[in-house]
Amino acid sequence: MTTPDLPHLNSLVASPRVLKVLSELHAEATAEGPYLNPASSLDKFVALDTDKCAFVYLLLRSMGARNVVEAGTSFGLSTIYLALAVGQNASAAGASGKVIATELEAHKAARARAHWARAGPDVEPWIELREGDLRETLKTDLPESIDFLLLDIWTPLALPALKLIQSNLKKGAIVVADNVEAAKDGYRELVEYIETPENGFKATSITFSGGLGFYVYLGQE
C-alpha cells in the first residue's frame, strides 16, 4: 500500500491497517494546526511531523532498538511508529521489547489506547502506557538497557525525564528532542546538561521543521 498524500509513510514496513490509522491520525493532527503553549495543547495531538516520525522509525530499525521510552505520548500517534519498529526488531531477534509511553492527561491516555487498538497487533502489544506524572512513573521498573528516548513534551520536563532514565541508557543510546530550535529557550537546561562533557553525551541537531535535537550517550567516565 502506497500513500501518495503522505509519502513519508512509504518508508515504513507496515500493514494496510496500520498505514490507514496513521494516515487518518496525521490528517487529524494537521487539521488542528500548531499549538502555541502548553495550555493550548491540552486537546491537541502534539505529535511529531510525518517526516520526523519516518526518520525515527528508520533510526530504530537500523539500531535494532527493542527498549524505548517516550516522554510525552499525547494521543499516541508517534508511539505507533516507535512500537512498530520495536515490535519488528524484537520479532526478528526472537526477543522481548517494549515502548514505555508516558502521559499525564487521562483523556489523552484513553484516546491513545483507542488509537493503538485500531492499529492492531503489530503495534498495541508492544506498548506499556504509564499514566500520570512521569517524574513519578519513570522512577521504577525500567529496562536495564534502554536504546532510545524520545522527548516530545513540555520542555521543563525534558531534563527531568532524561535524568530519570540516564543510568539505564546503554552506551550508544540515542535521545531525540523535538522542536529544539522552535522552543530553544525552554530547552536551555537540557542543552546545557547535554553539552557538559562529564554527563556523557555528544550532540548535534537536524534541520527538520522546528529543529530535532540528536544526542548520543557515550557513557560517563
TrEMBL record:
Q: Name one Pfam family in it.
A: Methyltransf_24
Q: Which InterPro entries match?
A: SAM-dependent_MTases_sf, SAM_O-MeTrfase
Q: Which Gene3D superfamilies does the record match to this protein?
A: Vaccinia Virus protein VP39
Q: Which domain of life is it from?
A: Eukaryota
- Give the molecular function GO annotations: O-methyltransferase activity
Sorted alphabetically, the keyword list is:
Methyltransferase, S-adenosyl-L-methionine, Transferase
Swiss-Prot/TrEMBL GO biological process terms: methylation
Please report which protein family the annotation says this sequence is part of.
Belongs to the class I-like SAM-binding methyltransferase superfamily. Cation-dependent O-methyltransferase family.
Task: Identify this protein by name.
Answer: O-methyltransferase protein
Q: Which organism is it from?
A: Favolaschia claudopus
Lineage of the organism? Eukaryota, Fungi, Dikarya, Basidiomycota, Agaricomycotina
